[in-house]
């Protein structure tokens, strides 16, 4: 009897672990149920929560988080997010995130070493539907109209509803980062937008992607044109990094970067001819979009994923769509570990320094005798615990840290971005400045208040990885 009971319990556990998300279009209630079921299967590595505001019609905006310590930020562990269904009638991303959640849970329980490593080193947030009202409007109308359901229940396009920070930059703003302090809103933002803005500002996101439909391409900043032309390449300071991130997703997708893939409206796919990526403004200009807002308001690098020509694909195609996007979705999460990360501490107390500015100069050798000398004019800041992350492509860089009340410090580092490894660790211990200078430093991307007093924030960690101290390398560097 006891043996039979054990077998029965084991069988039930196996069935639970192997439970799969159905390939169908889940309505808002079913979507929430799937997220809850995944969390129930993996309670030790997931947390289901809702954003601060529901949709216009009162539907909660659900987020499923994956982490080895769900609900808590861990020092130096990077965070990323996927946001889908911002346009209610563009639905594929919504279903892909449900299947991604199922895949992460199932693979972790099965002991997949790569997924275990990924979740143990990364905090992942999945928001399957930013616009559940638009989804319902589109679905109830038959899901055939190209525009109906795109906007929210107030008929507002959420991807035009964010503060237009591009214009702050284009009109000569002194800074190119953390520009929320300069925002002067000319309209009342929608509750869905407000919720996502709070999410962005309350979490130290390093990387994200915004999932759309209507074409097949990975789109990167800037999304808004600098001039009057609706189609001009608008390069961000991190253009090289953004192109790398977009190419990572496109190259792992069997069709997005394949030159033989036909276009949505023509036999030739111009995007695929160029690797399946595009600068947003070179395609068409978008003001008030979420992608550029992330980059200019926080430390978060975001791209936009156009997942297919059909905005509302038939359910029969969903299985193949998941197969086509699975590798890209996982590999893109790994990109959260590109570049460098570390702690910025007070040399005297060992405590983290919040709001320090991290500036980067690209000094990669162009040949045996010469180096680049290119400032990347987009700084990131350390978060509440003093930890920071800076996405970079392979090369040699000078990392310069400055914080109010401290002497600035610089180190040189070589970035390689080895596959499926954590970012290179580069710590800074800052000395108190002999004369305090007010540089108007502030932490505009701080952690939620309930995380401030965690014991982890008091810990002084040993550096890992190889880095070159600026003092040891200055002579060679100055010789060019």
Protein model, in words:
The protein has helices spanning 2-18, 28-41, 92-109, 113-121, 132-140, 165-170, 191-202, 239-251, 270-273, 280-283, 290-297, 318-334, 470-478; strands at residues 46-50, 62-66, 79-84, 123-127, 205-212, 215-220, 277-279, 301-308, 340-346, 357-362, 374-381, 387-390, 395-402, 409-415, 424-425, 428-430. It is α/β, with parallel strands linked by helices and 480 residues long. It is built from 13 helices and 16 strands. The termini are far apart. It is globular and about 70 Å long. The model is unreliable at 3-18 and 440-480 (pLDDT under 50).
Question: Which labels suit this protein?
Answer:
480 residues; alpha/beta; eight-stranded mixed β-sheet; four-stranded mixed β-sheet; 13 helices; 16 strands; disordered N terminus; disordered C terminus
Q: What's the Cα radius of gyration?
A: 23 Å
Instruction: List the uncertain runs.
Output: 3-18, 440-480
What class would the helix/strand composition place it in? alpha/beta
Q: Which outline best applies?
A: globular
> Could you report the average pLDDT, rounded to the nearest whole number?
88
Strands side by side in the biggest sheet = 1-2-4-3-5-8-6-7
SSE string: HHEEEHHEHHHEEHHEHHEHEEEEEEEEH
Q: How many DSSP-defined strands?
A: 16
**How much strand content do the residues show?**
15-25%
The helix tally amounts to 13
Helix content: 25-40%
Measured distance between first and last alpha carbons: 79 Å
- Largest sheet data: 8 strands, mixed
